[in-house]
Design goal:
By secondary structure, the chain is α/β, with parallel strands linked by helices. It has 20 helices and 26 strands. The strands form five sheets. It has an eight-stranded parallel sheet. It is globular.
Length: 550
Protein backbone atom coordinates (compact mmCIF):
# COMPACT_ATOMS: atom_id res chain seq x y z
CA UNK A 1 0.00 0.00 0.00
CA UNK A 2 1.22 3.52 -0.71
CA UNK A 3 2.50 5.78 2.02
CA UNK A 4 0.18 8.55 3.14
CA UNK A 5 1.17 11.90 1.60
CA UNK A 6 0.18 13.54 4.90
CA UNK A 7 2.60 11.32 6.82
CA UNK A 8 5.38 11.84 4.29
CA UNK A 9 5.06 15.61 4.68
CA UNK A 10 5.19 15.38 8.47
CA UNK A 11 8.25 13.13 8.43
CA UNK A 12 10.08 15.45 6.05
CA UNK A 13 9.62 18.28 8.56
CA UNK A 14 10.65 16.31 11.64
CA UNK A 15 13.57 14.34 10.16
CA UNK A 16 17.01 15.36 11.23
CA UNK A 17 16.09 17.28 14.37
CA UNK A 18 18.30 15.64 16.98
CA UNK A 19 19.65 17.15 20.15
CA UNK A 20 21.26 16.11 23.40
CA UNK A 21 18.40 14.64 25.40
CA UNK A 22 17.99 12.37 28.38
CA UNK A 23 18.34 8.68 27.63
CA UNK A 24 16.50 5.99 29.59
CA UNK A 25 16.95 2.24 29.24
CA UNK A 26 14.29 -0.25 30.34
CA UNK A 27 15.83 -3.61 31.10
CA UNK A 28 14.69 -7.05 32.27
CA UNK A 29 11.47 -6.64 30.31
CA UNK A 30 9.20 -8.46 27.88
CA UNK A 31 9.05 -5.96 25.04
CA UNK A 32 6.19 -6.88 22.71
CA UNK A 33 7.17 -4.63 19.83
CA UNK A 34 4.06 -5.26 17.68
CA UNK A 35 6.27 -4.89 14.61
CA UNK A 36 5.51 -6.80 11.42
CA UNK A 37 7.18 -9.96 12.81
CA UNK A 38 5.77 -9.57 16.34
CA UNK A 39 9.35 -9.44 17.62
CA UNK A 40 9.94 -9.78 21.35
CA UNK A 41 12.92 -8.00 22.92
CA UNK A 42 14.50 -7.84 26.37
CA UNK A 43 15.23 -4.12 26.58
CA UNK A 44 14.31 -0.73 25.08
CA UNK A 45 15.99 2.65 25.21
CA UNK A 46 14.40 6.04 24.59
CA UNK A 47 16.12 9.37 24.02
CA UNK A 48 13.97 12.44 24.35
CA UNK A 49 10.64 11.63 22.77
CA UNK A 50 11.92 8.91 20.41
CA UNK A 51 12.75 5.24 20.66
CA UNK A 52 16.53 4.86 20.43
CA UNK A 53 17.01 1.09 20.52
CA UNK A 54 15.08 -2.15 20.97
CA UNK A 55 16.64 -5.58 21.31
CA UNK A 56 18.93 -7.66 23.48
CA UNK A 57 19.88 -5.97 26.73
CA UNK A 58 23.62 -5.76 26.02
CA UNK A 59 23.04 -4.24 22.59
CA UNK A 60 20.56 -1.68 23.89
CA UNK A 61 22.84 -0.68 26.77
CA UNK A 62 25.74 -0.19 24.37
CA UNK A 63 23.63 1.98 22.08
CA UNK A 64 22.32 4.06 24.99
CA UNK A 65 25.77 4.91 26.37
CA UNK A 66 27.19 5.04 29.86
CA UNK A 67 25.27 8.16 30.89
CA UNK A 68 21.82 6.59 30.38
CA UNK A 69 19.43 6.08 33.25
CA UNK A 70 18.50 2.42 33.74
CA UNK A 71 15.09 1.13 34.90
CA UNK A 72 14.84 -2.55 35.85
CA UNK A 73 11.28 -3.67 35.05
CA UNK A 74 11.62 -6.98 36.91
CA UNK A 75 10.03 -8.98 34.11
CA UNK A 76 7.11 -6.64 33.37
CA UNK A 77 5.79 -6.24 29.85
CA UNK A 78 6.15 -3.24 27.54
CA UNK A 79 3.67 -2.66 24.71
CA UNK A 80 3.15 0.31 22.38
CA UNK A 81 0.80 2.91 23.81
CA UNK A 82 -2.76 1.78 23.26
CA UNK A 83 -4.86 3.44 20.55
CA UNK A 84 -8.63 3.82 20.57
CA UNK A 85 -9.37 3.96 16.85
CA UNK A 86 -12.77 5.64 17.10
CA UNK A 87 -13.94 7.91 19.91
CA UNK A 88 -15.68 11.20 20.57
CA UNK A 89 -13.68 12.82 23.38
CA UNK A 90 -15.06 16.33 22.96
CA UNK A 91 -18.75 15.69 22.29
CA UNK A 92 -18.71 12.48 24.31
CA UNK A 93 -17.30 14.32 27.28
CA UNK A 94 -20.04 16.90 26.98
CA UNK A 95 -22.60 14.11 27.23
CA UNK A 96 -21.66 13.89 30.91
CA UNK A 97 -24.30 16.58 31.50
CA UNK A 98 -26.86 13.83 30.85
CA UNK A 99 -27.89 11.53 33.72
CA UNK A 100 -27.29 7.83 33.05
CA UNK A 101 -30.46 5.68 33.00
CA UNK A 102 -28.95 2.66 31.24
CA UNK A 103 -29.10 -1.07 31.86
CA UNK A 104 -26.27 -0.81 34.41
CA UNK A 105 -28.68 1.13 36.67
CA UNK A 106 -32.21 0.08 35.73
CA UNK A 107 -33.39 -3.29 34.45
CA UNK A 108 -36.61 -1.97 32.87
CA UNK A 109 -37.73 1.20 31.14
CA UNK A 110 -40.48 1.57 33.74
CA UNK A 111 -37.88 1.71 36.51
CA UNK A 112 -35.87 4.28 34.55
CA UNK A 113 -38.95 6.45 33.94
CA UNK A 114 -39.81 6.34 37.64
CA UNK A 115 -36.30 7.55 38.43
CA UNK A 116 -36.56 10.34 35.87
CA UNK A 117 -39.84 11.47 37.40
CA UNK A 118 -38.25 11.67 40.85
CA UNK A 119 -35.14 13.39 39.47
CA UNK A 120 -37.14 16.20 37.89
CA UNK A 121 -39.36 16.98 40.87
CA UNK A 122 -39.06 20.57 42.01
CA UNK A 123 -37.32 21.77 38.84
CA UNK A 124 -38.50 24.91 37.08
CA UNK A 125 -39.33 25.49 33.39
CA UNK A 126 -35.86 27.08 33.08
CA UNK A 127 -34.16 23.77 33.95
CA UNK A 128 -33.30 20.89 31.63
CA UNK A 129 -34.19 17.23 32.13
CA UNK A 130 -31.33 15.37 30.41
CA UNK A 131 -30.90 11.59 30.45
CA UNK A 132 -28.77 9.13 28.49
CA UNK A 133 -28.30 5.43 27.70
CA UNK A 134 -31.91 4.24 27.88
CA UNK A 135 -31.85 1.07 25.78
CA UNK A 136 -35.04 -0.52 24.47
CA UNK A 137 -32.99 -3.45 23.17
CA UNK A 138 -31.91 -4.50 26.67
CA UNK A 139 -34.43 -2.81 29.02
CA UNK A 140 -37.94 -4.27 28.61
CA UNK A 141 -40.88 -1.89 28.32
CA UNK A 142 -44.52 -2.97 28.40
CA UNK A 143 -45.57 -0.06 26.15
CA UNK A 144 -42.97 -1.05 23.54
CA UNK A 145 -41.95 2.49 22.58
CA UNK A 146 -41.14 5.58 24.62
CA UNK A 147 -42.78 8.70 23.16
CA UNK A 148 -43.24 12.37 23.95
CA UNK A 149 -46.41 11.40 25.84
CA UNK A 150 -44.37 9.51 28.44
CA UNK A 151 -41.95 12.42 28.77
CA UNK A 152 -44.69 15.07 28.89
CA UNK A 153 -46.10 13.31 31.95
CA UNK A 154 -42.70 13.61 33.66
CA UNK A 155 -41.74 17.10 32.47
CA UNK A 156 -44.68 19.07 31.08
CA UNK A 157 -43.04 22.51 31.40
CA UNK A 158 -39.30 22.03 30.83
CA UNK A 159 -37.37 20.52 27.91
CA UNK A 160 -36.68 16.82 28.42
CA UNK A 161 -34.36 14.67 26.32
CA UNK A 162 -33.44 11.00 26.52
CA UNK A 163 -30.35 10.29 24.41
CA UNK A 164 -30.73 6.59 23.82
CA UNK A 165 -27.91 4.04 24.08
CA UNK A 166 -25.72 3.92 21.00
CA UNK A 167 -26.07 7.63 20.35
CA UNK A 168 -28.19 7.40 17.20
CA UNK A 169 -31.63 8.12 18.61
CA UNK A 170 -33.26 10.58 20.98
CA UNK A 171 -36.68 10.82 22.54
CA UNK A 172 -37.78 14.35 23.44
CA UNK A 173 -40.87 15.91 24.94
CA UNK A 174 -43.25 18.48 23.49
CA UNK A 175 -41.39 21.44 25.00
CA UNK A 176 -38.19 20.30 23.29
CA UNK A 177 -39.96 19.83 19.96
CA UNK A 178 -41.21 23.41 20.26
CA UNK A 179 -37.66 24.65 20.94
CA UNK A 180 -36.54 22.84 17.77
CA UNK A 181 -39.34 24.46 15.79
CA UNK A 182 -40.98 21.12 15.03
CA UNK A 183 -44.70 21.09 14.24
CA UNK A 184 -47.11 18.48 12.98
CA UNK A 185 -46.32 19.56 9.43
CA UNK A 186 -42.52 19.37 9.70
CA UNK A 187 -41.18 16.93 7.08
CA UNK A 188 -38.38 14.44 7.67
CA UNK A 189 -34.96 15.90 6.81
CA UNK A 190 -32.88 14.00 4.27
CA UNK A 191 -31.24 11.00 5.94
CA UNK A 192 -33.19 11.47 9.18
CA UNK A 193 -36.60 10.55 10.48
CA UNK A 194 -39.21 11.63 12.99
CA UNK A 195 -41.07 8.87 14.76
CA UNK A 196 -44.76 9.54 14.24
CA UNK A 197 -48.07 8.69 15.82
CA UNK A 198 -50.76 7.08 13.68
CA UNK A 199 -52.14 10.52 12.80
CA UNK A 200 -48.74 11.63 11.44
CA UNK A 201 -47.72 13.91 14.30
CA UNK A 202 -44.10 13.60 15.50
CA UNK A 203 -44.05 11.30 18.53
CA UNK A 204 -40.82 12.70 19.98
CA UNK A 205 -38.44 10.09 18.59
CA UNK A 206 -35.57 11.49 16.51
CA UNK A 207 -33.33 9.33 14.31
CA UNK A 208 -30.53 10.47 12.02
CA UNK A 209 -27.66 12.94 12.24
CA UNK A 210 -29.61 15.95 10.99
CA UNK A 211 -32.16 15.72 13.80
CA UNK A 212 -29.69 14.74 16.54
CA UNK A 213 -27.32 17.60 15.73
CA UNK A 214 -30.33 19.90 15.56
CA UNK A 215 -31.41 18.84 19.03
CA UNK A 216 -27.92 19.11 20.50
CA UNK A 217 -27.62 22.60 19.07
CA UNK A 218 -30.34 23.94 21.39
CA UNK A 219 -29.44 22.04 24.59
CA UNK A 220 -27.83 24.80 26.65
CA UNK A 221 -26.03 22.65 29.27
CA UNK A 222 -24.47 20.54 26.52
CA UNK A 223 -23.21 23.58 24.65
CA UNK A 224 -21.93 25.42 27.74
CA UNK A 225 -19.97 22.39 29.00
CA UNK A 226 -16.26 23.22 29.43
CA UNK A 227 -14.84 20.99 26.72
CA UNK A 228 -11.23 21.84 27.54
CA UNK A 229 -11.23 21.03 31.25
CA UNK A 230 -13.61 18.11 30.70
CA UNK A 231 -11.27 16.59 28.13
CA UNK A 232 -8.25 17.08 30.41
CA UNK A 233 -10.05 15.18 33.19
CA UNK A 234 -10.94 12.36 30.80
CA UNK A 235 -7.34 12.18 29.57
CA UNK A 236 -6.13 11.36 33.06
CA UNK A 237 -8.54 8.43 33.22
CA UNK A 238 -7.49 7.20 29.80
CA UNK A 239 -3.77 7.48 30.58
CA UNK A 240 -4.36 5.22 33.57
CA UNK A 241 -5.72 2.64 31.10
CA UNK A 242 -2.62 2.85 28.89
CA UNK A 243 -4.17 4.98 26.14
CA UNK A 244 -1.85 7.36 24.31
CA UNK A 245 -3.75 8.08 21.07
CA UNK A 246 -7.40 8.64 20.15
CA UNK A 247 -9.00 8.48 16.74
CA UNK A 248 -11.57 11.29 16.82
CA UNK A 249 -14.33 10.00 14.60
CA UNK A 250 -16.11 13.12 13.58
CA UNK A 251 -15.03 16.66 14.46
CA UNK A 252 -18.33 18.49 14.17
CA UNK A 253 -17.23 22.10 13.72
CA UNK A 254 -14.22 24.44 13.50
CA UNK A 255 -14.90 25.27 17.15
CA UNK A 256 -14.35 21.64 18.11
CA UNK A 257 -11.14 21.54 16.06
CA UNK A 258 -9.99 24.62 17.98
CA UNK A 259 -10.59 22.65 21.18
CA UNK A 260 -8.39 19.80 19.95
CA UNK A 261 -5.64 22.21 18.92
CA UNK A 262 -5.75 23.90 22.32
CA UNK A 263 -5.60 20.54 24.06
CA UNK A 264 -2.58 19.55 21.98
CA UNK A 265 -0.71 22.59 23.25
CA UNK A 266 -1.33 21.70 26.91
CA UNK A 267 1.08 19.61 28.96
CA UNK A 268 -1.78 18.19 31.02
CA UNK A 269 -3.46 16.53 28.02
CA UNK A 270 -1.20 13.48 27.47
CA UNK A 271 -2.93 12.09 24.41
CA UNK A 272 -2.41 12.32 20.68
CA UNK A 273 -5.47 12.77 18.48
CA UNK A 274 -6.02 11.85 14.86
CA UNK A 275 -9.22 13.43 13.62
CA UNK A 276 -11.80 13.06 10.88
CA UNK A 277 -13.86 16.08 9.81
CA UNK A 278 -17.61 15.60 9.51
CA UNK A 279 -18.35 15.63 5.79
CA UNK A 280 -21.75 17.19 6.41
CA UNK A 281 -20.03 20.34 7.72
CA UNK A 282 -18.08 20.85 4.49
CA UNK A 283 -19.21 24.46 4.05
CA UNK A 284 -17.91 25.34 7.52
CA UNK A 285 -14.58 23.65 6.86
CA UNK A 286 -14.14 25.53 3.59
CA UNK A 287 -14.98 28.85 5.22
CA UNK A 288 -12.56 28.19 8.09
CA UNK A 289 -9.80 26.86 5.84
CA UNK A 290 -9.53 23.62 7.84
CA UNK A 291 -8.27 20.67 5.78
CA UNK A 292 -6.84 17.15 6.22
CA UNK A 293 -3.13 17.22 6.95
CA UNK A 294 -3.43 20.18 9.26
CA UNK A 295 -1.81 19.79 12.68
CA UNK A 296 1.25 18.09 14.12
CA UNK A 297 2.27 14.81 15.75
CA UNK A 298 0.18 15.65 18.83
CA UNK A 299 -3.03 16.50 16.97
CA UNK A 300 -3.68 16.08 13.27
CA UNK A 301 -6.58 15.88 10.82
CA UNK A 302 -6.33 12.70 8.75
CA UNK A 303 -9.54 12.67 6.73
CA UNK A 304 -13.31 12.80 6.47
CA UNK A 305 -16.15 11.06 8.32
CA UNK A 306 -19.43 10.03 6.74
CA UNK A 307 -22.31 7.93 8.10
CA UNK A 308 -24.21 5.54 5.86
CA UNK A 309 -26.75 4.44 8.48
CA UNK A 310 -27.64 4.46 12.17
CA UNK A 311 -27.17 1.84 14.90
CA UNK A 312 -28.46 -1.70 15.04
CA UNK A 313 -29.57 -1.56 18.67
CA UNK A 314 -31.68 1.48 17.78
CA UNK A 315 -33.04 -0.47 14.78
CA UNK A 316 -31.69 2.19 12.38
CA UNK A 317 -28.71 0.23 11.00
CA UNK A 318 -29.50 -0.42 7.30
CA UNK A 319 -30.10 -4.13 6.68
CA UNK A 320 -30.43 -6.47 3.71
CA UNK A 321 -33.25 -8.23 5.58
CA UNK A 322 -35.71 -6.88 8.17
CA UNK A 323 -35.07 -6.78 11.89
CA UNK A 324 -36.43 -9.66 13.93
CA UNK A 325 -40.23 -9.93 13.84
CA UNK A 326 -40.67 -6.75 11.79
CA UNK A 327 -40.60 -5.33 8.29
CA UNK A 328 -38.13 -2.61 9.29
CA UNK A 329 -34.94 -2.45 7.20
CA UNK A 330 -33.40 0.43 9.14
CA UNK A 331 -32.49 3.90 7.94
CA UNK A 332 -30.13 5.10 5.20
CA UNK A 333 -28.47 8.27 6.46
CA UNK A 334 -27.06 8.85 2.97
CA UNK A 335 -28.18 7.76 -0.48
CA UNK A 336 -25.88 5.61 -2.60
CA UNK A 337 -25.25 8.61 -4.83
CA UNK A 338 -24.28 10.79 -1.88
CA UNK A 339 -21.84 8.16 -0.57
CA UNK A 340 -20.35 7.85 -4.08
CA UNK A 341 -19.85 11.61 -4.21
CA UNK A 342 -18.33 11.84 -0.74
CA UNK A 343 -15.80 9.07 -1.41
CA UNK A 344 -14.62 10.66 -4.66
CA UNK A 345 -14.66 14.29 -3.56
CA UNK A 346 -13.29 13.56 -0.09
CA UNK A 347 -10.38 11.66 -1.59
CA UNK A 348 -9.66 14.45 -4.05
CA UNK A 349 -9.64 16.96 -1.20
CA UNK A 350 -6.94 14.92 0.52
CA UNK A 351 -6.99 12.51 3.40
CA UNK A 352 -8.80 9.32 4.19
CA UNK A 353 -12.45 8.26 4.28
CA UNK A 354 -13.79 6.86 7.56
CA UNK A 355 -17.26 5.53 6.77
CA UNK A 356 -19.78 4.53 9.41
CA UNK A 357 -21.67 1.38 8.49
CA UNK A 358 -23.46 -0.87 10.97
CA UNK A 359 -25.98 -2.87 8.95
CA UNK A 360 -24.95 -5.23 6.15
CA UNK A 361 -26.83 -3.16 3.54
CA UNK A 362 -24.98 -0.01 4.60
CA UNK A 363 -21.71 -1.94 4.29
CA UNK A 364 -22.82 -2.98 0.78
CA UNK A 365 -23.28 0.68 -0.11
CA UNK A 366 -19.85 1.67 1.21
CA UNK A 367 -18.10 -1.18 -0.60
CA UNK A 368 -19.91 -0.23 -3.81
CA UNK A 369 -18.77 3.39 -3.53
CA UNK A 370 -15.13 2.44 -3.02
CA UNK A 371 -15.30 -0.03 -5.91
CA UNK A 372 -16.78 2.58 -8.26
CA UNK A 373 -14.23 5.20 -7.24
CA UNK A 374 -11.33 2.82 -7.82
CA UNK A 375 -12.79 1.73 -11.16
CA UNK A 376 -12.90 5.41 -12.14
CA UNK A 377 -9.22 5.81 -11.35
CA UNK A 378 -9.64 7.52 -7.96
CA UNK A 379 -6.94 6.23 -5.60
CA UNK A 380 -9.01 6.02 -2.41
CA UNK A 381 -6.53 6.18 0.47
CA UNK A 382 -6.88 3.41 3.06
CA UNK A 383 -10.68 3.41 3.28
CA UNK A 384 -12.02 2.17 6.62
CA UNK A 385 -15.50 1.17 7.75
CA UNK A 386 -16.51 2.27 11.23
CA UNK A 387 -18.22 -0.37 13.40
CA UNK A 388 -18.72 -2.76 10.44
CA UNK A 389 -21.06 -4.57 12.77
CA UNK A 390 -22.88 -7.13 10.62
CA UNK A 391 -20.77 -8.57 7.79
CA UNK A 392 -21.50 -11.40 5.41
CA UNK A 393 -18.93 -13.79 3.92
CA UNK A 394 -19.15 -12.17 0.49
CA UNK A 395 -18.48 -8.78 2.03
CA UNK A 396 -15.38 -9.97 3.87
CA UNK A 397 -14.00 -11.20 0.55
CA UNK A 398 -14.66 -7.79 -1.05
CA UNK A 399 -13.07 -5.96 1.87
CA UNK A 400 -9.86 -7.89 1.31
CA UNK A 401 -9.99 -7.40 -2.45
CA UNK A 402 -10.40 -3.63 -2.09
CA UNK A 403 -7.98 -3.19 0.85
CA UNK A 404 -10.74 -1.83 3.09
CA UNK A 405 -10.07 -2.17 6.80
CA UNK A 406 -12.64 -2.04 9.59
CA UNK A 407 -12.92 -0.96 13.20
CA UNK A 408 -15.17 -2.87 15.59
CA UNK A 409 -17.14 -1.49 18.53
CA UNK A 410 -16.49 -4.69 20.46
CA UNK A 411 -18.85 -3.64 23.27
CA UNK A 412 -21.60 -4.66 20.84
CA UNK A 413 -20.68 -8.25 21.65
CA UNK A 414 -20.05 -7.79 25.35
CA UNK A 415 -22.99 -5.56 26.28
CA UNK A 416 -25.52 -5.97 23.48
CA UNK A 417 -24.80 -9.51 22.31
CA UNK A 418 -27.75 -11.06 24.11
CA UNK A 419 -30.09 -8.33 22.87
CA UNK A 420 -28.91 -8.75 19.29
CA UNK A 421 -29.51 -12.49 19.58
CA UNK A 422 -32.90 -12.33 21.30
CA UNK A 423 -34.47 -9.01 20.27
CA UNK A 424 -32.71 -7.35 17.35
CA UNK A 425 -31.62 -10.04 14.86
CA UNK A 426 -32.15 -13.58 16.12
CA UNK A 427 -29.40 -16.14 16.85
CA UNK A 428 -28.34 -16.89 13.26
CA UNK A 429 -27.57 -13.30 12.33
CA UNK A 430 -26.28 -12.23 15.75
CA UNK A 431 -23.17 -14.41 15.42
CA UNK A 432 -22.17 -12.25 12.42
CA UNK A 433 -21.58 -9.38 14.83
CA UNK A 434 -18.00 -8.00 14.96
CA UNK A 435 -16.48 -10.99 13.18
CA UNK A 436 -12.96 -10.73 14.54
CA UNK A 437 -12.22 -14.43 13.92
CA UNK A 438 -13.35 -14.44 10.29
CA UNK A 439 -11.51 -11.19 9.56
CA UNK A 440 -8.31 -12.61 11.03
CA UNK A 441 -8.60 -15.79 8.95
CA UNK A 442 -9.30 -13.77 5.80
CA UNK A 443 -6.42 -11.35 6.41
CA UNK A 444 -8.64 -8.26 6.66
CA UNK A 445 -7.14 -5.76 9.15
CA UNK A 446 -9.36 -4.53 11.96
CA UNK A 447 -9.03 -2.36 15.03
CA UNK A 448 -11.09 -2.15 18.21
CA UNK A 449 -12.69 0.99 19.59
CA UNK A 450 -14.99 2.28 22.31
CA UNK A 451 -16.95 4.85 20.31
CA UNK A 452 -16.76 6.79 23.59
CA UNK A 453 -19.14 7.63 25.13
CA UNK A 454 -21.20 4.80 23.61
CA UNK A 455 -18.97 2.45 25.60
CA UNK A 456 -16.25 3.06 28.18
CA UNK A 457 -14.16 -0.11 27.93
CA UNK A 458 -10.44 0.09 28.63
CA UNK A 459 -8.09 -1.23 25.90
CA UNK A 460 -7.45 -4.41 27.86
CA UNK A 461 -11.19 -4.89 28.32
CA UNK A 462 -11.60 -4.61 24.55
CA UNK A 463 -8.84 -7.17 23.99
CA UNK A 464 -10.47 -9.58 26.42
CA UNK A 465 -13.91 -9.07 24.86
CA UNK A 466 -12.56 -9.86 21.38
CA UNK A 467 -10.72 -12.97 22.60
CA UNK A 468 -13.52 -14.41 24.73
CA UNK A 469 -16.70 -13.01 23.09
CA UNK A 470 -18.42 -13.66 26.41
CA UNK A 471 -21.64 -11.84 27.23
CA UNK A 472 -21.72 -9.39 30.12
CA UNK A 473 -25.15 -10.65 31.18
CA UNK A 474 -24.06 -14.31 30.93
CA UNK A 475 -20.25 -14.74 31.02
CA UNK A 476 -20.55 -18.47 30.35
CA UNK A 477 -22.21 -17.81 26.98
CA UNK A 478 -20.03 -17.15 23.92
CA UNK A 479 -21.49 -15.27 20.95
CA UNK A 480 -19.92 -17.05 17.99
CA UNK A 481 -17.21 -19.46 19.09
CA UNK A 482 -15.54 -19.30 15.67
CA UNK A 483 -15.38 -15.50 15.79
CA UNK A 484 -13.01 -15.33 18.74
CA UNK A 485 -9.85 -13.34 18.08
CA UNK A 486 -6.36 -14.56 18.86
CA UNK A 487 -4.61 -12.64 21.63
CA UNK A 488 -1.93 -11.46 19.20
CA UNK A 489 -4.45 -10.06 16.72
CA UNK A 490 -6.50 -8.44 19.47
CA UNK A 491 -3.33 -6.71 20.72
CA UNK A 492 -2.59 -5.53 17.20
CA UNK A 493 -6.16 -4.17 17.08
CA UNK A 494 -5.32 -1.63 19.81
CA UNK A 495 -1.77 -0.83 18.62
CA UNK A 496 -0.34 -1.34 15.13
CA UNK A 497 -3.56 -1.64 13.11
CA UNK A 498 -5.19 1.58 14.36
CA UNK A 499 -1.86 3.37 13.87
CA UNK A 500 -1.97 2.26 10.22
CA UNK A 501 -5.63 3.22 9.90
CA UNK A 502 -4.87 6.67 11.33
CA UNK A 503 -2.05 7.25 8.81
CA UNK A 504 0.44 7.24 11.68
CA UNK A 505 2.21 3.88 11.49
CA UNK A 506 5.62 5.49 11.03
CA UNK A 507 5.17 7.45 14.26
CA UNK A 508 3.27 5.17 16.67
CA UNK A 509 1.71 1.70 16.99
CA UNK A 510 4.87 -0.37 17.37
CA UNK A 511 8.10 -0.14 19.33
CA UNK A 512 10.71 0.47 16.66
CA UNK A 513 13.75 2.71 16.39
CA UNK A 514 12.89 6.28 15.50
CA UNK A 515 9.23 6.14 16.44
CA UNK A 516 7.66 8.32 19.10
CA UNK A 517 8.21 7.03 22.63
CA UNK A 518 4.58 6.16 23.44
CA UNK A 519 4.35 2.94 25.44
CA UNK A 520 2.67 1.18 28.33
CA UNK A 521 4.17 -1.03 31.04
CA UNK A 522 1.98 -3.91 32.26
CA UNK A 523 2.48 -6.11 35.31
CA UNK A 524 1.76 -9.24 33.25
CA UNK A 525 2.06 -10.42 29.66
CA UNK A 526 -1.37 -10.64 27.96
CA UNK A 527 -0.09 -13.60 25.93
CA UNK A 528 0.58 -15.60 29.10
CA UNK A 529 -2.57 -15.16 31.19
CA UNK A 530 -5.97 -16.82 30.82
CA UNK A 531 -8.16 -15.07 28.25
CA UNK A 532 -10.75 -14.09 30.84
CA UNK A 533 -8.06 -12.48 33.02
CA UNK A 534 -6.57 -10.08 30.47
CA UNK A 535 -8.57 -7.18 31.85
CA UNK A 536 -7.20 -7.89 35.33
CA UNK A 537 -3.66 -6.99 34.23
CA UNK A 538 -2.51 -3.79 35.90
CA UNK A 539 -1.31 -0.83 33.88
CA UNK A 540 1.73 0.11 35.94
CA UNK A 541 2.98 3.00 33.82
CA UNK A 542 2.01 4.93 30.71
CA UNK A 543 4.54 6.98 28.73
CA UNK A 544 3.67 9.47 26.02
CA UNK A 545 6.16 11.48 24.01
CA UNK A 546 9.01 10.20 26.17
CA UNK A 547 7.42 11.31 29.44
CA UNK A 548 5.73 9.26 32.11
CA UNK A 549 2.09 10.40 32.28
CA UNK A 550 0.75 7.66 34.58
Amino acid sequence: MRKSPILAAVLSVTAGFAQAQETTVFTNANVLTMDADFSVAQAMAIRGNRILSVGAEADVMAEAGENASVVDLAGNTILPGFIDAHSHPVGGGASSVFDNVGIDRFTTVEDALDYMKDATKGQSPLDWALFVNLDLATQPFADGLVTRDHLDTIAPDMPMIIWQAGGHKMTVNSVMLDLMGVTGDTPDPEGAQFGRFDDGRPDGNLSGSALLFGALGVIEPYNSYDRIEGSVALAKEWSAQGLTTLGVAGVASPKDWDVLEELAARDDFPLRTRSYLQWGALVMWDEAGVVPGQGNDKSRIVGWKISADGSNQAFTGLQREPYLNSDNLGLAYMSQKDIDTAVVEGTKRGGQMAMHGNGNAAIDNIISSVQKARDAGVDVLRPRIEHCSITEDDQIAKLRELDISCSFLIAHVLYWGAAFRDTVFGPEKAVKLDRTGSFEKAGVPYSLHTDYSVSVLSPLEMVEAAVTRSLFTDPETVLGENERASVDMALRAVTSVPAFQLLSEEEIGSLEVGKLADFVILTQNPREVAANQINEIEVEQTWMDGKRVH
